[in-house]
Design brief:
4 strands, globular, 7 helices, alpha+beta, about 190 residues
Length: about 190
């Protein structure tokens, strides 16, 4: 009914009311629905699920939702994640360009309980950290040029942000620390 003419506004309004009243256990589903169906009330749920007590997937969805529906007032809580170096996405890049959009992508996060196998030597391991996403969301909400720090960033109308746009080689993470330090220097009101 979201796509049927005449029903779409009504369904978004009903779902928006439901989304803001859901329990924490449904956060992933609520955030996904909010992003997929363009329901801005998902930002309310996203704001409640940024802290470390939530799992990695929920926090990533919360950042994606805020990048799409958030406002400048969300920069302060999102900036608190700039210290978190949790790896939220990994893959191996065989194209030597740095993005799965340009080459072959293979996810490198095994199921729980299984050890990671080392990637082949001719392959670069690429990672995305939570603080990378947080920096990108802060910049996007502040109407700054995200491509100045993340050159592969492409605005995504359906997801807000796409994780692979923020990937860098696992062995070259100093760039991110410098970018975060520069952003904090430019925005002292959001200092650690």
């Amino acid at each position: 009914y979201f796509l049927k003419t005449g029903y779409d506004r009504c369904m978004r309004a009903l779902t928006g009311q439901w989304i803001s009243k859901t329990q924490a256990s449904l956060a992933n589903d609520v955030l996904s629905i909010s992003i997929q169906r363009s329901i801005p009330e998902g930002a309310t749920v996203a704001r409640r699920h940024l802290d470390a007590s939530n799992d990695r997937e929920t926090r990533v969805l919360a950042l994606q939702c805020l990048s799409r529906f958030g406002n400048e007032g969300d920069i302060a809580p999102v900036s608190k994640l700039l210290n978190e170096e949790l790896v939220v996405y990994e893959f191996t890049d065989q194209s030597d360009i740095g993005s799965p959009r340009d080459g072959i992508q293979e996810e490198d996060i095994p199921p729980p309980g299984l050890d990671r196998k080392p990637p082949p030597r001719d392959v670069r391991k690429m990672i995305v950290r939570l603080n990378d996403l947080a920096l990108a969301v802060c910049m996007k909400l502040g109407s700054e040029d995200v491509t100045a720090v993340f050159p592969k960033f492409q605005p995504n109308e359906s997801n807000g942000i796409v994780l692979v746009d923020f990937a860098f080689p696992a062995d070259d993470q100093e760039y991110h620390k410098l970018a975060i330090a520069r952003w904090r220097q430019k925005h002292p009101q959001f200092a650690e």
